[in-house]
């Protein structure tokens, strides 16, 4: 199935720093210059104060599993030989929730401490997470 | 309490209907509802529609259907809000009638989702962006809800099964239902994983069909063919956020919608005789039970045990079979069944002395919620 490519990021002017950051091994999110709110999803304006001013800030990459599921159904041919696979929402220590995969274990539980890794897929680098020891 | 009533309901056959189209199904449902109400076509001066998944004209669905029906309405439009469309449109109709914009409004839906090969499996996120992580399909967001609910409250797969079993039992009593063979908790537990923790029997059907609901004032309703069913209360609430809200998986706007419906109707959870709760997936019913105040937060799982939501139980839920087993009409048939229960026309599924029915809708995955309280005149 390797000839069928999996979905890849659509890079836009708005999200370019995010994807370029991942390629450099950094998880960069927007932080509002108006109110300090760190935000995800990537957005034109701050959802709290509507300021358009923001900086791109490296996150620690630490977080905890907010919720976690295992895909058994194949919805896309590129994932046919990957099922069962994990999809999770991770709550970053800095606050934002992001969509991701927790890999390197098949025992993913809500509340589990995790750490970001940077995974090269065809044509992009994406964020995934692995378990980490709690501090 | 509003002075608005539902005076006609209509539905096509449900299931796999080769040769049908969204348009043909909407037309048939409209004609069926007109006959039910005793109204003439020219009595209808409002046409509100949900385009569903297969209408090629989508947002212009009201024009396409209206031309087909020869309508010249005072009020028209289409709304795409998935499983919240039915409730939202009926509430818009009620508000418009109360405001004097129209007198009698038909809310119509037709969708050939089954034969039309609708893909409910596309990637999530704007621009399908979550497909990067393999996040596809309608089940996934509800699976995330279920996973977190299980982790926080100890909810089990067997408790989810109770919802599927109750809906199927009710469908077995409904000649119009698509899935009528009763199932057990063991059958549910033996069904394959779709997106764990949700199994095949946690998931709604995909169906062809059409439904129409006709709304008018109580004054007009009293002279019509059917016993009027009052929309005693209504409420809706939404979030437009997903990952941006820590509450997204807890769906708290459902609570707001139901409690606004209670408040406007002047009732509370103890007054509800029967409930039609939007069930795209079994977990959704647990959340509705909690948000509607039938049990405490986190206790939906234990609430559904022991047949409590089956006919004959303390709170019969989805008495026609729901999206899970009657047909996936995106919640439109929940309104129809609510009307039939209040009219006393539900046959062997009739809840004795049903005077107050809660009907809920939810669409766009977790984001759009509404509720109505239906009562007699
Ligand atoms: Zn801000």
From TrEMBL, chain A:
> Start and end of every ChsH2 rubredoxin-like zinc ribbon domain?
19-53
What residue stretches are annotated with the ChsH2 C-terminal OB-fold domain?
A: 56-118
Q: Highest taxon of the source?
A: Bacteria
Pfam families attached to this UniProt entry:
OB_ChsH2_C (PF01796), zf-ChsH2 (PF12172)
The record, for InterPro entries, names: ChsH2_C, ChsH2_Znr, NA-bd_OB-fold, Thioester_dehydratase-like
**What name goes with this protein?**
DNA-binding protein
UniProtKB/TrEMBL annotation, chain B:
What is the originating organism of this protein?
A: Acrocarpospora macrocephala
Which GO terms of the molecular function aspect are on file?
acyltransferase activity, transferring groups other than amino-acyl groups
Any matching Pfam family: Thiolase_C_1
Q: Which residues form the signal peptide?
A: none
In what residue span(s) does the Thiolase C-terminal domain sit? 235-375
Question: What InterPro entries does the record point to?
Answer: Thiolase (IPR002155), Thiolase-like (IPR016039), Thiolase_C_2 (IPR055140)
* Protein known as: Thiolase C-terminal domain-containing protein
PANTHER family hit by this protein: ACETYL-COA C-ACETYLTRANSFERASE, NON-SPECIFIC LIPID-TRANSFER PROTEIN-LIKE 2
